[in-house]
Amino acid sequence: MPSARPVFVVTGPSGAGKGTLIKGLVERVPGIEIAVSATTRPLRPGEVDGREYWFLTDEEFTRRVAAGEFLEWVPYVSGHRYGTLRSEIDRIAEDGKVCVLELELRGAVTVQDEVPGSVTIFIAADVPELERRLRDRATESTGEIGERIELARSQLEQAHLFRYMVRNDDVERATAAVAAIVECELAMSESSALRPRSGRLSG
Ligand code: 5GP
């Protein structure tokens, strides 16, 4: 549908604060809904199946890949797989809501290439800050934190692949910036849906 609202993709390295900024976005801009991804990684304390992720077994994930249920999926540094279910995006659009995805970089590039009108926002943070956040979270094994930090360093150089970049050095400021991008893009898509398809503005 040409007048469909954009799908927003928030991407960036692990530890950049994507989740926090998305929560802030949901509080500030009405009508936003976060698509729940599927993963094979184990639940962290406090997480709930169907809220943070759909936590699937390896077999179930493989079955759904074969059934074509994923828009995209990736194996992550941990060896666990993460993927975006097409059904989540359809459900959110059918409810008349605006869909936000939180994805690592490869998934974000795939969605940017395959979903017309998708809007990508790269969240950046300084490496020492990323490292501190990952260690504070301390949910991964030390080896895996090292891998995530290495990955984060190389990912920070790929910001140019995406439409927008927001530096998360101050959560309030960064949340306001993400909300402004979303509101602006929504306003643009609404005004282009109203624009006549052909003809001149003045005779
Ligand atoms: P975490 O294990 O910290 O929840 O997530 C690890 C990484 O996977 C994060 O960078 C997160 O954005 C990414 N991720 C979460 N869901 C998906 C998904 O559906 N597809 C892709 N490509 N990445 C995802």
Could you please describe the fold and organization of this structure?
- By secondary structure, the chain is of the alpha/beta class.
- It contains seven helices and nine strands; from the N terminus they run βαβββαββαβαβααβα.
- The chain has helices at 18-28, 58-66, 86-94, 105-114, 127-137, 142-155, 171-194; strands spanning 8-11, 32-34, 37-39, 53-55, 70-75, 81-85, 98-102, 119-124, 164-167.
- It is globular and about 55 Å long.
- The protein binds guanosine-5'-monophosphate.
- Guanosine-5'-monophosphate binds at residues 14, 18, 37, 41, 72, 74, 76, 82-84, 102-104, 107.
Mean pLDDT: 91
Number of strands: 9
Helix content: 40-55%
Strand percentage, roughly? 15-25%
Instruction: Tell me the radius of gyration.
Output: 18 Å
Task: Describe this protein with a few key phrases.
19% strand; binds guanosine-5'-monophosphate; five-stranded parallel sheet; alpha/beta; four-stranded mixed sheet; 9 strands; globular; 203 residues
